[in-house]
Amino acid sequence: MKLTQLSLFLENRPGRLIEPTRLLAAEGINVMTLCLADTAEFGILRLIVQDPKRAAEVLNGAGWTVNLTEVVAVEVPDQPGGLAAVLGVFEQAGLNVEYVYAFTLRRDDRAILVFRFQEPDQAIAALQASGHQVLDAERLDALVG
Amino acid sequence: MLKELWNDAAGGFHPASAPDFLPESALKEVQLRRLRAVVQRAYDNVALFQERLRERGLTPAAIESLADIRHLPFTVKADLRDTYPFGLFASPMSEVVRLHASSGTTGKPIVVAYTREDIEVWSEVMARTLACCSLHRGDIVQNAFGYGLFTGGLGAHYGAEALGATVIPISGGNTDRQIMVIRDFGVSALFSTPSYFTHLVERASELGIDLRELPLRVGVFGAEPWSDGMRSHIEAAAGISAFDIYGLSEIIGPGVASECPEHHGLHVFEDHFYPEIIDPETGEPLPDGEEGELVLTTLSKRAMPMIRYRTRDITAIIPERCGCGRSLRRIQRIGRRSDDMIIIRGVNIFPSQVEAALLAVEGTLPHYRIILSREQGLDQMTVEVEVTPEVLSDQVRVIEDMRERIAQAIERILGIRVGLRLVEPHSIERSQGKAKRVIDQRGD
Hints:
The complex is a heterodimer of chains A (145) and B (444). Chain A is an alpha+beta fold. Chain A is 34% helix and 39% strand.
C-alpha cells in the first residue's frame, strides 16, 4: 500500500534541478509530482514517478545517488476539509507526520496527499480503519494514466 | 566463493625473498660494503656530492661503520631540480637504459636514471615486495598504476613478471574496462593508488558487480598516504586483503618498502635502501622507535646514487622483530608527508586528519577535498564532502545532523573551526593516479 519516493541531493545553485528531470524525460518516465526541500546550502528533491525502480536505475547509471523511501499516499476529495479530515486520523492515532505534499489530478476532482512517517504501516492501518482510500502504485498508475 | 589463501608448501617463502631473512649481522655486513661502494661511486662521478664532501673535509674513506653515515651531507629534492635534467647522474648515458620523470606539477620535473643493473635491482625489490604481499606465480595481476614517466606502472610490471605472475598492463583510467577485465580475466590481484581503487569499488557497485564474489583476493596500494580506516573500507567492500607499499622515484620507484601479511608496518628492503629517521628541524638522527623524517640512501644504485635523501615522509622505525620472520626492519605506515602539511591561521594541518574525522563519523571514507582560500587577508579552509548513499536521506534534518557531526569531528581533531560544504555525489573529480586532495587558491 506504500509508494516508493526517490530523493536526490542537489547543491543549491542554478541549473541543478534540470539534470535529473531531463534524464527521466529522456527515458519516458513520467514525474507525477515532486517536492523540493531546501536549505541555504543544499536541497533535497523528492519525486513520485511512474516507475520508481527504473527511474532509480537511470539516475544511478548517470552517477546520481538516490535514496528510496516508502511514503503513504491518500486520495481525498479536492475540496475544503479534505486535508483536515486525514490529519485528524493521524492525530487520533498519535502519529507524527514528518512531511507532506499534495497534488491534484487533472481528470477529476480528487487530490492526492503524500505523507512521510517513521511508521508508515501504522498510518495505513489508521487510514483504512477510518475508511480512507490509500493508494498503491497500481491504483496511482490507473488514476494518472 | 572461497578466496584462495597463500599457503605455499614452503611456508610463504618465495625464493626471491631470500635476502628478506638474512641474519642481522650478515645484513649489516652487506649494508656497510655497499654503502662504502656507493659513496665512492657518487664521489667519483657526481660533482655536487664531491664538492659537498670536500667542503666538510671528508673523503669516502671516512665511512668505517654504518653509523658514520651521519657525517654525510643530505640530498634534497631541490638538488634534483637545480641539476635538472641529468646533473646527478653517476653513469654516462651509454650505460643508462631508462629515464623516468616526476609529473612536475610544481616547477621543473625531476629526472631519474637507471642502468641495466638498476633495472635488475628494481625488478628484484618489486618481486620481493609482491611476494611480501602474498603474491606468487599463478596470480593474475592487473596493474592499474600509470605506465609512462611515472615509475609506478613499469616498476610494478617488472616485479610481477620477475615473480612469475601473469601481468595485465592495463595502466590507469577507463574504470568500466578495468572492472570488466577483473571479472572476465579472473584477476586475483590489483595494483593501483588507494584513491583510484576506492573509485573503482564505487563504480563496480553502480554497475551491479559485487567484487567480493570474484577471485580478486589482494590489492597492492601505494603512491599516496591512506589511512587504516580506508583499508578496512576497501577490504570489506572488495573482499580483499589490502597491502601498503612504499617507494619514491628519487630512490628507485615502488619497491623501497612493503607490508607483509602481518599488516603492521612496512619492511624496508634495507639491503638496497638504508633507512634513517632524523629530526626534520635539526637533521640529527633519531633512535629506532622515534618519529621523524625518513632519510634513505641507495646502497646499490648505479646511474643515480642518492646519499641521505630526505623523503619529507614522516614515520618511525619499528624496533621489534616482525611475526613474519623477515629480519628487515619496518617503518610505520606513512600517514603524512611534511610536504602535505597545510598551515592555516598558524595551525598545522594534515589532510589525513580530515580523513580520520570523516571516517569516524561516516564509517566509510567519502570523496572529499580541502579548499584553501584567502578572504580579506584571512586564510580560510573549507572541506567539501560528497554526500554518500549512507548519508543521503529524504529528510533535511537527518542530513543537517550528519553535517554538524562531521563539522564537530573535524573541529575536535584539528582544533579549529573550518568551513564544511556538502556537495553532490561524483562532483569531485576522481583521480586516475595520485589524488589531489588540497586545492590552494591563496595565490602565493
